[in-house]
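Researcher: We're teaching a course module on how sequence relates to structure. For the next exercise, students receive a sequence and then see the predicted structure as tokens, so they can try to spot secondary structure elements on their own. Here is the exercise chain.
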Amino acid sequence: MRRALLMVALAACGPKVGPNGVSASDPVVYLHSNVADAQVYVDGRFVGPISVIKGGIALDPGKHRIELRHEDFFSRYVELDLARAEKKKLQLELAPVLP
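Model: And here is the predicted structure for the students to work with:
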């Protein structure tokens, strides 16, 4: 019985997960760009337009590739190695494609 109570108490002390599934220990990347409607990809998967991702992107700790794409601009990417609970701000400028 004591062992069960101890396990419940330890589980309650774990990271608190918010209603959106993000915990305080998750790394978060905040993106800014000169192209407001650039498309954001993380590890090759589409996340959404940068204008919608104002609150940042919560990721697992470790290595990630973050890429911005737009048909009128050259794509740009950065590779990050994120630590637990790290908060990272990125400013990615896109260069226009020449006619």
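Model: If you want an answer key for the exercise: The beta strands are 28-33, 39-42, 45-49, 57-58, 62-70, 73-82, 87-92. Confidence is low (pLDDT under 50) at residues 1-14.
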